[in-house]
Amino acid sequence: MYAVEYQRAKSVADATAALAKTGGKALAGGQSLVGAMKLRLANPGTVVDLSGIAELKGIKKEGDAIVIGALTTHADVAASPIVKQSIPALASLAEGIGDRQVRNRGTIGGSIANNDPAADYPAAVVGLNATVQTNKRKIAADDFFKGLYETALGADEIITAVSFPVAKKAAYVKFPQPASRFALVGVFVAQTGGGVRVAVTGASSHAHRAKPIEDALAKSFTVDAAKAVKIPADHLNNDLHGSAEYRAHLVSVLAGRAVAAMA
């Protein structure tokens, strides 16, 4: 592990100033960043710890949306009565992340900011058409995830909360990699006020919408309609865990399972 300077922020303004001055990295739950640093895949120089900022924690309902603070842990999302009642698919997704230790340390903001290509939360953000709130602006889900570990966040920009509109119905189904429980492929299907949204994680460089399945479900919201869609494999991941063609097949199969779960 490289030598690193550690700073503990007391407020969002404090953290923003530290990041702007040092060019360092924000540390939320540390489940991704610390691991990358141990493997010498990341060398931020300065780490700005956000864990002491109380205003970044908590879950509340605002109108027709559930607003989750960036430092809220996966375990808290999974156990939240508000989330379970309003968006049960989101609570179920959080319950399936990693293991108990990861769920009690990892945070929703850290996961989204890291943008691992196989992470679960990005599928929910895109599938539910959430809004990522930062210390500077609000970013629509479709504009947030840009590429492999790449987001729309600026160097000194910090996620403060994520606002999830309450869907009419939603479900998330993933095919987990057995060792890590990351999604080999995960599919989030939601019936929203703006129509059907289908988000895929694990299959490519970042979470994205499966518009061919969205179009099929808009015409016929059935398991058969979802499973009948043939997803092109040319843009999907191909590695030792599964070929691009295998992942393409899984996208349609899991979308069908998500539709079945919603029924």
Write structural notes for this entry.
With 263 residues, this protein is an alpha+beta fold. The protein is 36% helix and 25% strand. The strands form 4 sheets. Strands 4-5-10-6-7 form a 5-stranded antiparallel beta sheet. It has a 4-stranded antiparallel beta sheet with strand order 11-12-13-14, sandwiched between helices. Strands 1-3-2 form a 3-stranded parallel beta sheet, covered by helices on one side. The chain is globular. It starts with a strand and ends with a helix.
Topology overview:
Blueprint lengths: L4 E4 L3 H11 L2 E3 L5 H6 L7 E4 L9 E4 L2 E5 L4 H6 L1 H6 L1 H8 L4 H6 L2 H7 L6 H7 L3 E4 L3 E3 H4 E3 L2 E2 L7 E7 L3 E8 L6 E10 L2 E7 L6 E2 L1 H9 L3 H5 L16 H19 L1
Parallel strand pairs: 1-3, 2-3
Antiparallel strand pairs: 4-5, 5-10, 6-7, 6-10, 8-9, 11-12, 12-13, 13-14
